[in-house]
Each structure stands twice: as structure tokens, then as C-alpha cells.
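Appendix B, example 12.
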Amino acid sequence: MSSNLDKEENSSVAQAKQVALPKKIKIVKRSKMNEVKLDSQTLALQTMKRTDAMVLNFCGDKHATSEETMKTLIKVMKQSKKLRKIDLKFKRCEFLTNEGLKAFGEGLQKLTSLHSINMDFSGSDNITYEGLKYLGESLKKLRSLRSINLNFSACDNMTSEGVKNLGKGLKKIISLRSINLNLMGCSKITDKGLSYLSLRIQRLSFLESINLNLEDCVYISNRGLKSLGEGLWKLKSLQAINLNVAACLGIYDEDLKILSEGLIRLCCLKSLNLGLAACFKITDESLNNIGSCLDKLDFLKYFNLNFAFCGNITDEGLKKLGQGLQKSSSLQSLNLNMSACNKITDEGLHQLGSGLQRLGSLRSVNLNLGYNEFSDKGLVNLFEGLKQLHSLESINLDLTSCRNVTDKGLDIVGFGLRRLSLLKSVNLNFCCNNITDKGLDNLGLGLQRSSTLRSIKMNFEG
């Protein structure tokens, strides 16, 4: 029996010597949490032990992703009986093809103890819907999988059919708790692909977190977002949603209304991140719908909303958003990016400040207000609300190229910050042409009187 084991070990080593392995290899054992770089000979030996996690980096390697390499690598990996996590990077691998992915998938489906998969295929243009069919068929065999992270950003041949094939595999993994899918810049994906995906994932009744990046998928429009919203309704266990549809030019107010109606039904939701930057067709009505949604999410702790470059958002939209925020009593972290929304004025900041002042549990605020037309008066209005947040520990304020802000504005900021008795961290970005040394002196006096501050970062270059 010992002789047979020796033969198997020697065979694996011989196979490993014959192929080009990735540039970087790490194998991690949980007991010691040490990472070791291995050469091709020791790889075969070490992976037969009870390895916990493996990290393989093929990024940009022209030789290590051939079909033969994949087959050999999987033969080695299968000997690790306790493998729980795989992190594979195939970024910009020109020679990764559908056949190579098929070979990899045939081995992957044997790793039934896997809990977590992270695979980066970004910029790998030779992968098509056929390769994703092989991958999907492999994934559905991994019944213990709890987390999956797939990056297909900038894959020019990623289509709706490919998303459909991937979804077919995902829907079978009922143990899944987390999905992270990056499709940024995949311009061939349409509403049909998003509908396919929504239909599949709504069957994952234990799903707790979903991260879907559709930025610059220019053919995603109202029908796709409607399908996604309707799919979210059925995921009652969801606690975190990260949805980025930035620069999807077919998104309208009505679509966000449907999405918001779906979010309201998610009674366990704790974290919500919506990326709407450069969705030029949305108006104040979208912020009204989102604000109404916040009013109903009783357990929401983290809220991130990016509507930068949405030129149809006005002060009225901030009013509606502020009204929703003021009822989010459990909120601990708020991140708003409204840079380059050209119609926001002092009144808009007054409405936002009024909404913020009632968030007694808020600990962190990040406000990007750059490239807008408000003045020092707007900062007075904003800090009337912020100075009421006595639990606030961290504030990040970006006023880049706000040309109407002067030294007086910095005085207001400094005075407001010193009223926050628990404040520990401040990050300020002004870059405004009307700021002089006098303004900096006023700001410094305000910060100087804060006894709790531990970290200050400031940028005034412009």
C-alpha cells in the first residue's frame, strides 16, 4: 500500500514538472496562517496535505493557462481533501479559452468541500457563453459552497447567453450565502441577460448578500431592472445589497420605483449600496422613491448612494431624500456622492441637513459635494444638522471645485466639527480657489479645540 502511495506522489510531481505553472502560487494552512511560495516540484507534494486555502495567480501569463496545464493542476488540487477556499486570478490571460475552462471545471466539481470561490477572469476575451456553460455545470455540483466571487469585467465576449449559463449553475447551490458578480463594461449584456440571472438567483432562499456590478452595461434598461427588482422581493434572507448601474443610460425613474418597492419587502436588510452615477435620465422622483424605501427599512445600518453627474437632481430631490433619512433611526454609516449635480444649491443642503440631524445613531458620514453651486450659506445649513449628531466619530467632506465656498465656509466647518464631542477622524477635501491662509487658520482653530480627534487628513490643492 505504501508503494502505491509513493507511485502516486511521484506521478503527480512528474506531471507538475512537465507544465508551466503560474507565476505566483500561495498555499495557506489555517492552523498556522502562513503563506508559502512554492516551486512546481513541491506544489504536487504540498497540495496532497490537508491544505485549507489555495491562491493561484495566472494574471497575464501566456503559457500557464493552456488546457493541458489546467488538467494537470486540477489533478494536483483534487488530492487536497480539506480544501475550503480557492482564489484564482486569470486576469488578461490571452490563452485562456473555453476548452481550458472546461478542463478546469471538470476538476473543480470534484472539490465538494469548497466553501468559498474567488475567480478573476477580467479582460480574458476568449471566454464565451460556451465556457460559462462548462463553468455553470461545474458550480452546481458544489453543494457546500457558501460564497462566490466572479469577475468578468471588460470581457468583450460576455453576452446574455453567457449570463444565462452561469445562472443555471448558481440556482442549484442552495447553500449560497453570498454572490459577488462583476460584469462592468460587458457591453453585450442586455435586459434579457439580467432577467435570466434574476430568475435564477431568486431561488436561493438562504442568500444573505448580493453584489452586482453592471456599470457601463449600456444596454441594460427598464425591463432588466424591473426583473431584478421583482427577483429581490423573494430573497427574504437578504441582509446586504450592492447594486451598481452607473452609466446605464436606459435607466428611468419608473425603474427605480419598482426596485424600491422590492427593497421595502426585505425586512432583514442591513446594508444598501446603490450606484446611479451618470444615469442621466433619473430625476428628483428617483430620490423620492429611494427616500420612501428608507422609511420602511427598520434595520438598515449602512447606506451608500452615488448619484454623481445626474444633472436632473435638484434641491427638491434632496428634500425627499432627507425626509426618508430622518426616519432611518438605526443608520450608523451614510455615504452620499452628489458631485456634479449642477442644480443643487444652498436650499438643497438645508434640506439634507434637516434630515441628518435626527440620525442619533450615526457614527460615520461621507459627503461628496464637489462641483456644485452652493455657497457658504449652504455649509451653514448643512452643519446645523451635522452638529446635532453627537454619536458621530468620522466625517469625510469633499468640496472639490465648489467655487462659491470661501474662507467663511472653512470657519463654519471648523466651528461645526468642534461641537462633535466623539469625533475621532476628519478627512477634508476643498480644492476651492477662494480659500486663503485665513480660512485655514479658522479651520485649524476649530479642530484644535477637539480633544477626541485622532486622525486629520486635509487636501487644499486645486
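The CA atoms of residues 397 and 428 lie 5 Å apart. Residues 7-25, 27-49 have pLDDT under 50 and may be disordered.
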